[in-house]
Specification:
two-stranded antiparallel ribbon, 9-stranded mixed beta sheet, 537 residues, 18 helices, 12% strand, 45% helix
Length: 537
């Protein structure tokens, strides 16, 4: 992180101090919107500063507004006209000329001047900022004052014109809003520690690939995509990495678009969609009645757990040729969709509840097919309470398409964590142990050797062993974490009991002696004193 912990806590405290009565889940829409507009303004200004001639943007605009707008659009995908930069908002605030209409006009003009090639990336990205909401105030004057507070807060945060700093701040605030926005907040956030494990596993041995494409079918705020890309050598090289993702919730879809761009990803490397992944296969999928799926080097997902879905008439869907997940639990539907879009030499990682490892019926058949097809590479058990607002323990399942070996690596990492106030957190050493164990397994496979068990932590199970367990993948069947209690030393226990009895007798005698010397100051207190002496006898 480019931001220090002290800077993070200061920013979060300041946000809460200025939030007033606006709930965190709603407040984030305004804060992130303003932050993103600041980012876009600074990016536009940086481009303008590089234009030869040292002309002011207002001068260029005055000569031919349409041509000036098209010129900026062709370079950065959008236009911010003179007088509507974030810095212009700041100036108007300082001179007392700012009104909430400054924001609404700027956003309306921005929406009108998006490059046609960048429509998907920018269209509607500020729609969650409801500037007429009574939450901001009961009238324009109060709403203006509220927005001035937010803009002033963004002005005070020193971003040093550094996309990494801004991206880190955005990612940090996403996590904080998720932790403070109620039970459903986890739907847009995957803890960075979990993203980090998945990213290192996905990119291991592939870090030097010149071109790399990623896909997250339930992308939330896009953190999994970004973390995975960060381990690639060509991260931040324009055109080298392509980001694909789909998200059902529009507000979360907007978070993801902002998140990627504020981490320096160019709009033409972003391919995100706001839709239902299970009901609308994408990317590409069925075109003119023919299946044309796009395949990816890496697929990652942290889908909603055990979601209800419409599983009717899915038998002919090529994504679910290994089975149709039950209507009450879409876990395997997300897994099969992800696996379907994986290249033959690709790798995928998905977070799921433990139930997928042992539940029977339709899920049992799907699990058996995946194992028979040699798709499941590893099962990693995570600690409980590491996800926002849910205490259930989860797993990371790693899958590949074109494996020669059929064994499965099991890792029980459920006991490696640091306890927080209301949650558990994976420490750097816990992450390193998980990743290094996976790497050791892959190295053993590559060299034709067998990885030795890590006592009470990891085991490579053969297919025969898995068949003996009737294709049940419950981790305790393969990794024995039982800790024997130390044998009781009966002789020492007897000595300890004797010493305790002797000490008790000594203290009792001392108390009796003290009580014998006491007398009551009146008849009532003497009565109670005699009663206590009787109890001691």
């Amino acid at each position: 992180m480019a931001l220090k912990a002290t800077e993070q806590s200061m920013i979060w405290k300041t946000l809460n101090d200025t939030r007033g009565k606006i709930e965190p889940a709603e407040y984030k829409n305004y804060i992130f919107g303003i932050m993103f507009y600041k980012f876009l303004s600074e990016k536009a200004q940086a481009w303008l500063n590089g234009i030869p001639g040292n002309q002011e943007w207002s001068e260029i605009w005055a000569q031919n507004p349409q041509r000036a707008s098209q010129f900026m659009q062709s370079k950065i995908g959008y236009t911010i006209q003179p007088g509507e930069m974030f810095s212009d908002w700041e100036s108007d605030i300082n001179t007392g000329n700012f009104n909430i209409s400054n924001i609404s006009d700027s956003l309306a003009h921005f929406k009108q001047r998006i490059n046609s090639d960048a429509k998907i990336e920018f269209e509607g990205i500020f729609d969650d900022m409801d500037l007429t909401s009574s939450r901001l105030g009961n009238n324009d004057q109060m709403r203006t004052a509220t927005m001035i507070d937010m803009i002033s807060l963004m002005s005070q945060i020193e971003l040093k014109d550094d996309a990494d700093v801004l991206g880190d701040l955005y990612e940090y605030l996403i996590g904080m809003f998720a932790a403070n926005s109620g039970a459903k907040a986890g739907e847009f956030y995957t803890p960075h520690q979990v993203s980090d494990i998945m990213a290192q596993i996905l990119t291991y041995g592939r870090e030097d690939m010149k071109n790399y494409n990623l896909y997250d079918p339930a992308m939330g705020s896009g953190s999994l995509l970004l973390t995975t890309a960060s381990y690639m050598k060509n991260d931040h090289v324009r055109g080298a990495i392509k980001y694909y993702g789909q998200e059902l919730i529009t507000t979360t879809f907007n978070l993801a678009r902002m998140n990627l761009m504020m981490h320096g990803v160019e709009y033409n490397d972003i391919n995100l969609r706001n839709a239902d992944t299970l009901n609308n296969d994408w990317p590409d999928g069925i075109i003119d009645g023919s299946d044309n799926p796009r395949m990816f080097d890496a697929v990652m997902a942290n889908p909603p757990y055990s979601l209800k879905w419409n599983n009717k008439d899915r038998e002919d869907d090529p994504r679910f040729r290994d089975g149709v997940a039950p209507a009450s639990k879409a876990d395997y539907a997300f897994l099969l969709h992800s696996l379907y879009h994986l290249k033959q030499d690709g790798r995928m990682a998905i977070v799921l509840p433990h139930g997928v490892l042992f539940r029977g019926a339709a899920e049992g058949k799907i699990r058996k097919n995946l194992l028979t097809n040699r798709n499941i590479t590893a099962v990693i058990g995570l600690p409980e309470k590491i996800f926002t607002n849910t205490g259930i323990p989860t797993i990371i399942m790693v899958l590949e398409k074109n494996r020669e070996n059929d064994d499965v690596l099991f890792i029980d990492a459920s006991k490696g964590f640091e306890k927080q106030k209301n949650s558990n957190q994976l420490r750097p050493e816990d992450i390193e142990k998980i990743v290094s164990t996976f790497k050791n397994y892959k190295e053993a496979v590559a060299t034709g050797t067998t990885m030795e068990d890590v006592d009470k932590y990891a085991h490579v199970a053969s297919m025969d062993e898995i068949k003996e367990n009737d294709f049940n993948l419950n981790i305790p069947r393969y990794v024995d974490t039982f800790e024997e209690e130390a044998p009781i030393d009966a002789e020492q226990l007897f000595k300890d009991m004797q010493e305790l009895n002797a000490e008790e007798e000594k203290l009792e005698n001392e108390l009796k002696t003290m009580m014998a010397d006491l007398t009551g100051t009146d008849e009532e207190s003497q009565k109670y004193l005699e009663f206590l002496k009787g109890v001691l006898k």
